[in-house]
Fold this protein.
Amino acid sequence: MIEVVSRQNQKIAILGLGVSGLASAKVLRKSGAKVTVWDDNLASRDRAVREGLDVVELTETHISTLDALLASPGIPLTINRHPAIERAKALACPILNDIELLAENVGETHLIGITGTNGKSTTTELITHILEKNKRPCEAGGNLGRPVLEFEPPKKNQAYIIELSSFQLELTKQAAFDIAVLLNIRPDHIDRHGTMEAYVSAKMRIFEKTRSGKKGIAIIGVDDIDSRGIFDILKNNKNWNVIPVSVLRELTNGVFVKKGVILDASQGEPDRICDLSGFPNLRGKHNHHNAACAYLAAKYSGVPKNIIVNSFETFHGLEHRLELVTNLLDVEVINDSKATNIAATNTALSCFNNVYWIAGGRSKGENFSDLLPYAASVNHAFLIGEAAESLSEALSPTVSNTVCENLENATRKAIETAKKDPQPATVLLSPACSSFDQFQNFSSRGREFKRITRETLEVSLD
């Protein structure tokens, strides 16, 4: 647990009592802050009371007494702004998050921040895996896994690897990173930020500050127009050593992937790092891009090339991210429940042939017709959730499809249909939508998909 000495004796209210909000409240209280908490959900407030926390409604009077308001990532700041945020802004009460508190209290600890629309979690875990193989003390968290204030106190040579969503970056004003990674930017979370420009601006905040007296390492994917625009803005900034990464074209001043091979041309002639094509848990151009960015982050963290390459080989991948569930009777079943937007699903579709595709959930307001250029590999689509009818309309008549009642029906139909195919086939759950219409989160959706898959295949084998 991080000791938040920078906020001792301050009056701080926590708005939102999800995992990170509750963790922040406990850590701040233990660190000597005077903590009050609030959540609009009664069950969350009741849980806080059981934890011994002081639940106080965030009225104008209460906010006027605070030194700061800590907002959890799920609290809207722009569209449908929470009333407590409006009051705090009107009263000039500082609004912050747990990332800021971590940065305030870990001194010169090595901080690596990773953001992007897609690939954040895989890249975060891959960097962590490499550093662990190099026997460096490190912890990963943030948007992925543990709240950052639950990290163990820093040890000698400590590294913290932090996945950062746009929601977190909106409130990241003073936090700075030794290494900042921007993987990509695709349309996402427009319902939260209001415009694409606001979403891009939130992502760019990862480069807002550098560590005191240090030149930061900025690793930027340049295969999309918005990330390339950020690279163009930052490349001449004297506070950053900016390194571009591409899987679409050769670079003379960065790192690129050509036919599965990572080539480092950031310091002159291209240096062959390794061939990723033999690593099944890093297949596809998107994972080649993730690996190239992880390579650079590890390189500038002092990890030798041979350890980085060996780490790629032993990386097992992440649950719910192109996760192989089973490969039985010429039917490969892939759980890509984390693909909650169109760009992520298009990436998945490009990795497989003869696909029986399960998609749908709650739309994020994207144009489903953008899936069509990547759907040539789809034999049939099985559509679920609130977006099923809209997806069906966008895919027809190019992609034959069936609207199913729920994930269970879709999965069973997809597997049974794929088994009848004379050619090897892939059943792919890659929803292109959020899970919130039928599931608590993408993880619960992915676990349910795996349960149904196991039951369906057990029945079919009997």
